[in-house]
Write a structure and sequence with these properties.
Layout (H helix, E strand, L loop, with lengths): L2 E3 L5 H4 L2 E3 L14 E3 L24 E3 L12 E7 L8 E5 L5 E5 L9 E2 L12 E3 L8 E3 L1 E2 L6 E3 L7 E6 L3 E5 L5 E5 L3 E4 L15 H6 L54 E3 L5
Antiparallel strand pairs: 1-2, 3-4, 5-6, 5-8, 6-7, 9-16, 10-13, 10-16, 11-12, 13-14, 14-15, 15-17
Amino acid sequence: MALKTFRPTSPGRRHQVSLASEQLSRKEPEKALIIAKRSQAGRNNRGKVTVRHRGGGVKRMLRNVDFKRDIVDIPGQVMAIEYDPGRTARLALIQYPDGEKRYIIAPIGLGVGDTIMSGANAEVKLGNALPLKAIPVGTTIHNLELEPGKGAQIVRSAGVGAQLMSKEEKYCVVRLPSGELRRFSHNCIATVGQVGNIDHQNVRLGKAGRSRLLGRRPVVRGAAMSPRDHPHGGGEGRNPRGMHPKTKWGKPAMGYRTRRRKLTDKFIVSSRHKK
């Protein structure tokens, strides 16, 4: 997807870089496949702020994406490539012979008029969804299930892709975008190809107002606060605190591992943290 720059008619426009929309087939989504997104503003069910710096933003209608790909051995045709405000990747609108329509994550190279299919008998082709046992070693995949039949949960962001490294008796070893080598059941479904919209990483918002439209509120440095408001606060001038980065409540802000004694650690062949 091409990038779009702007004339410096204002300070916000000067450094703004957006994605061009020429490759999108249409702007309006399929009405039967949209769901309303209620803004939580970073609060839990008791109204307590559990994620800071969230709130506001424009109203969004999310697309109901088919992550299970459970229409088996029936070819579907790509009708459109669309934008989704709830994710970084683009969506492909698929229509099946009986008239049913579904959204899938659009991989690089998938275009309007192409045909896709899912199932163990499907061809190993771009956009097709197959069990890992039916995919050749070395193939780039995305939309990968963690448990068979649960639906794709990982490798879904713009531009990412995993690689099938080897096959064992009941498991397949996959290299994830983070570099981690992990075992998956050979019955887990994955889609062939790399997720599209690879230029998303080059987008520059250009001004604070675009962050507010995305629901991101301002972030204040701890060193700019008073000692009663943050562990980094206080001191004469920019006083180095001589401590590791912390949150307002004294918890480690970086390098704080939350994954402890996970039952699924046995499936990790090589950690992404290993140097």
